[in-house]
Amino acid sequence: MLMLQVWHLHAIGAHAPPIYADAMHKIAAIILASLIGVAAIGVIVMIVAEALMPIYDDSSVKRRLPQQALTPEEMTVTVTPHRDGTIHVAERLIFDASATEDRPLFWSIGGESIGWNGGVGEGGQYAVMPTVKDVTAIELSTDEGSTQTDPAEAADLTVARDDSDVDDPFYDDVRYTITNEKSRGQSSGEVTDWGPGRHVVDFAYVLDDVYLKVEGRDLFVLPLSFLEGTGEAPSLRTISLETGGPLLCLPTNRAFKPDPDCTGLTQGGADPVVEGGTLAWRQLNPVTSIGAVGFDAPKGMSVDPIDVYENKR
Asked: Which residues of 107-143 are buried (b: 16+ CB within 10 A; e: fewer)?
């Protein structure tokens, strides 16, 4: 339609007085320039759109992302409560080992205070006293073909349990040592568990005696116990519930009162983020007033909660 209008203006200009002819030619030139500009913009938009499409293809990016692209010293914990009163925990640890790294990983767990009966010093300490089962650990490959959704196994890790120092399970922890026997003795005859570079470890266990009744409230309690013994850098830690929730922090230094804002972590400068069934924070200071988290049980539990342990010493 615009081309017809331009032709019409040229036709008028050919028979119009000079002053009108000049005006008509200027109008025609402006319209032609506008048409060219619109066409150029359309071409640019198409090119940019085609270039951006792969960037926002989330599924393909996630499939390609290898383990070594993740943040060093990152711990992600997936928690699955079961109707039989147990919690199945899957922890993934990502860390960088130096050329002189020669120590195994450690994991310790025992009784954990979740608050006081009536207030600090007024009554006994409530505590979760977990029973640990089915502890396993494997190392995952960091090759390009090993992705987050489809990781390749690199080695089975050896898990050893030591409870020789446990006199009182409320105060003493059971200690687990996780070693990589495949790597031992392969570096100039030296004993080493982790070669230099990035490592990814999947660690899993089952906790029983963690479905508790505390002051009339039924809830699961998960001690905040993580693998340790790798780098010295602060680590990003994330806990995610598969079902149930929301997550609540259980301060050790005051009367039993589940805290949805996890202010005990805030006081340590960890800057926690709590969103329903997910809690994330940066571990800046290992000393914190939060030793465990709790959450409401999912529907359809097949067992009743046990009474919370109370240390009255």
From this structure: bebbbbbbbbbeeeeeeebbbbbbebeebebebbbbe
Q: Residue ranges of the domains in the chain? A: 2-52, 62-311
Residues 6+ apart with CB under 8 A from 149: 62, 63
Task: Give the angle 121-130-260 at the CA atoms, nearest 5°.
Answer: 60
- Dump pLDDT digits (tens) for 139-188: 998 887 777 777 888 888 999 999 999 999 888 999 999 988 765 544 44
Nearest to 128 by CA among 204, 206, 211, 218: 211
Q: Quickly count: other Cβ atoms within 10 Å of residue 211's Cβ.
A: 24
In this structure, what token pair is assigned to residue 1? Answer: 């339609």
**In terms of C-beta density within 10 A (0-12 exposed, 13-18 middle, 19 or more buried), how is residue 229 classed?**
middle
Q: Mean pLDDT, consecutive 10-residue segments, the chain of 313 residues?
A: 43 47 55 58 45 34 44 81 96 80 83 86 87 94 78 88 92 91 52 73 96 95 85 74 90 89 77 88 73 92 96 79
Which sign does the torsion angle of CA 153, 106, 174, 90 carry?
negative
User: What predicted TM-score, i.e. pTM, was given to this entire model?
Assistant: 0.73
User: How far apart, in whole angstroms, are the C-alpha atoms of residue 177 and residue 189?
Assistant: 21
Backbone angles phi, psi at 131, to 5 degrees: -105, 125
Six token digits for residue 191: 């004993």
**Residue 183 to residue 196: CA distance in whole angstroms:** 11
Paired tokens of 99:
């050329």
How do strand 174-179 and strand 197-208 relate by DSSP bridges?
unpaired
The domain defined by 62-311 folds into Immunoglobulin-like (2.60.40)
Q: Are strands 158-162 and 174-179 parallel, antiparallel or unpaired?
A: antiparallel
**Rounded-to-integer distance, Cα 199 and Cα 95, Å:** 5
Q: Are 222 and 82 in contact (CB under 8 A)?
A: no
What amino acid occupies position 77?
A: V
